[in-house]
TrEMBL record:
NCBIfam families in alphabetical order: PPR
Repeat is among the record's keywords: yes
Listed PANTHER family: ATPASE EXPRESSION PROTEIN 3 (PTHR47932), MIOREX COMPLEX COMPONENT 1 (PTHR47932:SF44)
Native source species: Dendrobium thyrsiflorum (Pinecone-like raceme dendrobium)
Presence of keyword Protein biosynthesis: no
Pfam families: PPR, PPR_1, PPR_2
Protein name, as recorded: Pentatricopeptide repeat-containing protein
InterPro entries for the chain: PPR_rpt, TPR-like_helical_dom_sf
Length: 495
């Protein structure tokens, strides 16, 4: 008998309702959160089902399906429902556009600026530039273009190789009631630099600087752009230009140069930049040091990492949670589990630094990588009593360890029960994928197919490789009904 997961457990228990540089610098984008009421949730479910059941999904088919569906026709559509659905289409721009147009055609319904920006961004991402421009024209008429819209349009145009159109769009900002000022100029320059068009950005800047004043951020954009292009000398020259305009380089400026040297593993230059920062009365901060130790980790020279840690401490710079997370991860991967655990259990508390969810997740993952199940479970127990409650990502290393150690009937079932019953978490695509692949690899094909059906019931579309793996094993076991259902899923996924 295999373990049930969320839906079945809920019926049985009535009370249950490696660190990258970009992560070091902080995540710039967050998914917008929407909380749907019961009626809104029901509407969203009906709309999703209508679209998912289509054999072919283009703009017109999606619109027609929604228009002809009685349930969709009768529902009271809210902006909250529409906006929440628009963030879940992935790269399926045709379904998103069909849904967007259908919603906009409903009597009395008017799209939010968020919805327009979401579709503009998706169309640009998928290089549907003509469709994007059509939508932008509608936004112009309704006065809905914001600075966020401008940034998205510029980014997608340059990403599609149409940087001249991005420059022309900037030139036309006055016609849509937006100013050609330092902020919008910086949008354009930043977009060009991030798409490795730093020389084009320089030409644009040389044309505009007589009319639009630069600020410190303008020069930081160029420092970053030259570093992306691996032309560090030009980045250093830009710092001198920056001083000529009366702006002092900041920690961000220096850290950008420093990161470029780190990416080239030129740590002699890294230490020179550190010395220069101190001499310029611009001392490195904890983010700077985190970048360095994260980069040094790739050399697997733990002693050099610890030298930097000691240098940071002697400078008076205080570690933060992200710094400790990076250091714990480095020590764990190097096999120095006792040192990692000492920092987690003792040093962080002594320095008044609280662990966050990532700290616990890293510590659990480290122990699991070294097959130390009991230590991992001990950290999990600590986490449950802390303000940082477990999330799905907390359990993934433990689930993998169960499959690796063959503890399917006892430990795996216990963990799944904790996830769904104790912590009220719902499986996502990654967790379902991990479980199905793990169960297939250990011969539990029926249980894997049960979870496959369950994820479809949760409106989570399996990955193609998951479908093919499960189908091959189902064929071997003569699970004819399962084979036909999986084939149907593969066929629909190819649409």
């Amino acid at each position: 008998m295999y373990c049930t997961s969320l839906p079945l457990i809920c019926k049985e228990n009535k009370s249950i309702k490696s660190t990258s540089d970009h992560e070091v610098l902080d995540q710039l984008a967050r998914i917008h959160d929407f909380v749907l009421g019961p009626e809104e949730h029901e509407c969203a479910h009906k709309i999703r089902c209508t679209i998912l059941n289509l054999q072919s999904r283009n703009i017109n088919f999606v619109m027609q399906a929604l228009q002809s569906n009685h349930n969709c026709h009768q529902m009271q559509l809210t902006t909250n429902t529409v906006d929440s659905l628009l963030q879940n289409f992935g790269d399926d721009w045709q379904s998103a556009m069909g849904f967007f147009q259908w919603a906009g055609s409903r009597p009395g319904y008017k799209h939010t600026t968020y919805a327009y920006n979401k579709i503009v961004d998706l169309l640009g991402k998928m290089k549907q530039i003509d469709h994007m421009w059509d939508l932008v024209e509608k936004m112009k008429i309704e006065g809905l273009i914001t600075l966020e819209t401008v940034a998205k349009i510029m980014r997608r145009l340059v990403g599609a190789g149409r940087w001249k159109d991005a420059v022309s769009f900037f030139d036309d900002l006055g016609r849509i009631g937006l100013a050609k000022d330092t902020e919008t100029m910086n949008f354009l320059l930043d977009t060009l630099c991030k798409e490795k068009k730093v020389e084009v950005a320089r030409e644009v800047f040389m044309e505009l600087k007589a009319h639009i004043p630069a600020d410190a951020y303008t020069f930081n954009i160029f420092v970053h752009g030259w570093c992306i292009a691996r032309r560090i000398e030009e980045a250093i020259w830009t710092i001198q230009e920056m001083r000529g305009y009366g702006f002092r380089p900041s920690v961000i400026t220096y850290s950008t140069i420093l990161m470029a040297h780190c990416k080239q593993s030129n740590f002699c230059k890294v230490y020179e930049v550190l010395d220069e920062m101190v001499a310029d009365d611009c001392p490195p901060n904890v983010v700077t040091y985190t970048i360095i130790i994260n980069s040094l980790a790739r050399t697997q020279d733990v002693e050099q990492v610890l030298d930097v840690v000691n240098r940071m401490k002697s400078s008076g710079c205080k570690p933060d949670t992200r710094f400790y997370n990076t250091l714990i991860n480095i020590l764990g991967k190097a096999g120095r589990l006792d040192d990692a655990f000492h920092i987690f259990e003792i040093e962080m508390g002594m320095n008044g630094v609280n662990p966050d969810i990532s700290t616990y997740n890293i510590m659990i993952s480290i122990f699991c990588q070294h097959d130390q199940e009991q230590n991992a479970l001990h950290v999990l127990k600590e986490m449950e009593y802390s303000p940082c409650k477990p999330v799905l990502q907390t359990y993934n290393p433990l689930l993998k360890l169960c499959f690796r150690m063959g503890k399917i009937d006892d430990q795996l079932k216990s963990l799944l029960s904790d996830i769904t019953t104790k912590h009220h978490l719902s499986f996502d695509l990654d967790t379902y994928t991990l479980l199905i692949h793990g169960l297939c690899g250990t011969g539990h094909v029926e249980w894997a197919y049960f979870l496959f059906n369950e994820m479809l019931g949760q409106e989570i579309v399996p990955r193609i490789r998951t479908c093919r793996l499960l189908m091959d094993l189902a064929i071997q076991k003569n699970m004819d009904v399962a084979v036909e259902r999986i084939k149907s899923m593969i066929s629909r996924s190819k649409v």
